[in-house]
C-alpha cells in the first residue's frame, strides 16, 4: 500500500534548508484533500516517521508538522525526539489554560513551537503563551504592511523568530530580510514535493486484541500476552521498531533483540497511545491478499526459527530468532532492499547482519526455514548436519509452525468481532 506526504523547504538567512514543513497528501496529486485535521496530522506523523523515515524525507532535518488542540492535549508530540519535530500549532486552536500548560511542558522538554498563519495581533494577545513560543509564521500575502510591522515589533519584544511564508518573488524575499525575518518559505524557493513510501497494513484483529490487553482495569498489563499478540503482525512490529528509533525515550539507541524488549522499552502506556494513533488511519483498511500471504510466510519463518533455536538450547535468545524470522521479508513488504528497510531499525547488530545475509547462527537457522519453505533439500541437508538436527525433526517443526500460523489466521478472519467493534 502506497502512502504519501509532501514536503516544502524552510530556508534560513543564508538560503540553506533549515527544516521542512510536512503536509498531508493522499496521492501523487500535489494538492490537499479535505480531511479532518487531527486525522491528517496523524497520517502525516505515521507516514513520515514510521513508514518513509526522516533520513529519506528530510535528510534528518527538523520537520514542521501541524497539530490540533486535540492532539496537543493528548501529548502526541512527546512521542517524538524534540530535535526532529517542530510543533506547529494551527491558527484555529483555542489556547485554554490546559493547552498553554502543555506548551510550557513541551518548551521545558526542549521542543520548538511555532504558531501557524499569524495574520492578526489577536493571535498574539496572550502574553503567557508568547513565553513558550519560538517561531511565528506570518503569511505575507494575507497581512497588510502596517499590521506586519506591528507583528514584527511584538515578536522582537518576546525574542521570537519570524518566518515569512508564501514568498513568491526575489523582491519579496529581500523585503522580508530587511524587515527582520530569519526564516523563509514559499513557491519562490520550492513548491511542495510529494514523497511516497510503501506501508504494510496491519490486521485490525491484532490491533483490537492488544488494545483489550492494554486496557485491563485493576491489575497489571500482561506483557507476555501483549507480546504474543504483537508477534502476529509484521506491520505493527515494524512500526514499533521505527517508533523507538525516532522517539523521545531514553535508551532509544539500545539494540533490540526481541519484540518483548521493544515493548518494555517503549512502555505499555505509550504503546496504547500509539495504537490509537495508528488506528485512525488503518482500522478501515483491510489487509490485501498479498500482504496476508507475506505476513503468514513471515510468521511461519519466525516460529520455525524460534523452535529450532529452542531445539539447539539457545535459551532466552530464542526470542531473537523469532524476530529474525519475522523480519526476514520486510524488504518485500516495504519494497526496499533489506539494508534500506532495516537501516533505521534499532535491531541487534547480529540480527541485522543475519537479515543482510551475513553468516552467523541467526542466519544459519533462518536459511533452514527458507530452505524448507522453498524445498531446497540439498542445502537443507547440509545445514542440518552442521547443526546436528535430524531431517524428521525439522519436518515436524515446520509442520507445527504452519499449523500455528494457520490457527492465527483462523482466529483473525473467522469471526465478526472486529466488525462489531468498528460498528
TrEMBL record:
Outline the extent of the HDOD domain. 200-393
InterPro entries, alphabetized: dGMP_Pdiesterase_EAL/HD-GYP, EAL_dom, EAL_sf, HDOD, RNase_Y/CdgJ
* A Pfam family: EAL
Return the protein name. Answer: EAL and modified HD-GYP domain-containing signal transduction protein
Native organism is Halobacillus alkaliphilus
The EAL domain sits at: 1-206
Show the SMART domains listed in the entry.
EAL
Superkingdom of source: Bacteria
